[in-house]
């Protein structure tokens, strides 16, 4: 029995039945034909000085030598352009933006350059630095008595404070603390809580940031305790001292007060509101009052209550001649009836804000009419200019009655 065999297909074209595609062998191109000239790595010596040893030890470091590749002249123009840019790196001149950014970084580094650490600095004067765990372990792994190897172990961890014990092979014990404490309270815990409150940041977000950064920090419960026991009372004492000193300087003098309210949220759902009175001549705050909405009829009445409390407190120290406020309806009535001996003026900024809102509303009405009946550009510009001129003249007359400069 004779079987008939078919010769194998040529390697130039192989056809696959399922994919119906031709598989061709890889072709060598001139782009991959390179001549490698490899140089042998040379050994260099560098000196390393330890913290405790006096002798200088030499160690051999192998310098990495890059291999140079000589490309064939048959490469395309893009490769030639890239190689020309690489060759011209020696003649590179940085731009002005690069130089300015480098200069800013150098200025920031110069602040701590050649800075001598002061072991006797007070807690509020000390600089704070972030130190990694590996760097701290390297620092504490050498015995301070015999310079032998030691094993540091964290024994106490309290917020930002850690206390380590390092025992060397000779039995020497070294105790190290990351910061000083007032009795049992670490200073950095108190300073961090104070910085969060005085910066106006949200404590939850700041503590979450430290958690993402893997920085050891106290909890939210500890922050609330530090705020209520130390930070808030200290801020209150500082304000009382400053206010008493300022009122003693202005005692019995005539003052012109400017006041305005600020709530924790806009609209009619505010829970807290503060009213501040400032001396417009010295540009200093004389008093501010904090009001809660459940103390009055509603959130809209907090501004008037704050003004009443602030005026009642300042009457015993200064002689109030004029009061400048916004055009709040209840404040206007109260000043007209209860404080008739004082001149009540409206703030120019609030008046201008009200006029601008009316101008915008009038402009929208004019645009709506012209869009319905057809627009005439010249007529629209004329009507808008006349309306604005009329409002400006009314605004000048209004300010003239109040003896104010409309565009100060």
From TrEMBL:
Biased composition (Acidic residues): 88-109
Comp. bias intervals (Polar residues): 36-50
Composition-biased stretches (Pro residues): 1-11
Annotated region (Disordered), positions in chain: 1-50, 71-111
Name of the protein in its database record: Uncharacterized protein
Upper lineage: Eukaryota, Metazoa, Spiralia, Lophotrochozoa, Mollusca
């Amino acid at each position: 029995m004779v079987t008939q065999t078919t010769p194998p297909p040529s390697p130039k074209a192989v056809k696959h039945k399922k994919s119906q595609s031709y598989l061709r062998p890889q072709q060598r191109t001139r782009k991959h034909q390179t001549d490698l000239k490899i140089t042998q790595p040379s050994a260099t010596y560098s000196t390393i000085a330890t913290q405790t040893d006096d002798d200088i030890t030499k160690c051999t470091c192998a310098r990495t030598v890059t291999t140079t590749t000589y490309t064939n002249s048959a490469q395309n123009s893009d490769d030639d352009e890239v190689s020309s840019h690489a060759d011209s790196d020696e003649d590179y001149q940085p731009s002005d933006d690069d130089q300015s950014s480098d200069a800013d970084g150098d200025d920031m580094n110069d602040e701590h350059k050649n800075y001598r650490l002061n072991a006797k600095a007070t807690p509020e004067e000390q600089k704070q630095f972030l130190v990694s765990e590996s760097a701290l372990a390297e620092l504490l792994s050498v015995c301070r008595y015999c310079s032998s190897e030691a094993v540091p172990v964290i024994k106490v961890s309290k917020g930002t404070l850690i206390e380590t014990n390092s025992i060397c092979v000779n039995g020497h014990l070294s105790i190290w603390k990351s910061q000083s404490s007032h009795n049992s309270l670490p200073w950095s815990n108190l300073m961090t809580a104070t910085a969060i409150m005085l910066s106006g940041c949200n404590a939850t977000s700041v503590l979450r940031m430290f958690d993402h950064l893997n920085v050891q920090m106290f909890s939210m419960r500890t922050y609330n305790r530090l705020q209520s026991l130390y930070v808030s009372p200290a801020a209150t004492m500082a304000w009382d001292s400053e206010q008493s000193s300022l009122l003693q300087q202005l005692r019995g003098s005539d003052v012109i007060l400017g006041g305005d309210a600020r709530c924790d949220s806009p609209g009619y759902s505010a829970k807290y509101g503060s009213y501040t009175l400032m001396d417009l001549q010295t540009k200093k705050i004389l008093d501010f009052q904090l009001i809660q909405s459940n103390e009055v009829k509603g959130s809209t009445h907090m501004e008037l209550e704050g003004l009443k409390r602030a005026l009642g407190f300042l009457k015993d120290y200064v002689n109030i001649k004029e009061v400048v406020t916004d055009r709040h309806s209840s404040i206007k009535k109260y000043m007209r009836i209860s404080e008739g001996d004082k001149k009540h003026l409206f703030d120019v900024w609030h008046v201008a804000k009200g006029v601008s809102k009316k101008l915008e509303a009038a402009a929208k009405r004019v645009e709506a009419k012209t869009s319905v009946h057809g627009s005439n550009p010249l007529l629209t510009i004329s009507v808008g200019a006349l309306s604005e001129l009329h409002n400006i003249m009314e605004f000048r007359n209004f300010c003239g009655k109040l003896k104010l400069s409309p565009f100060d």
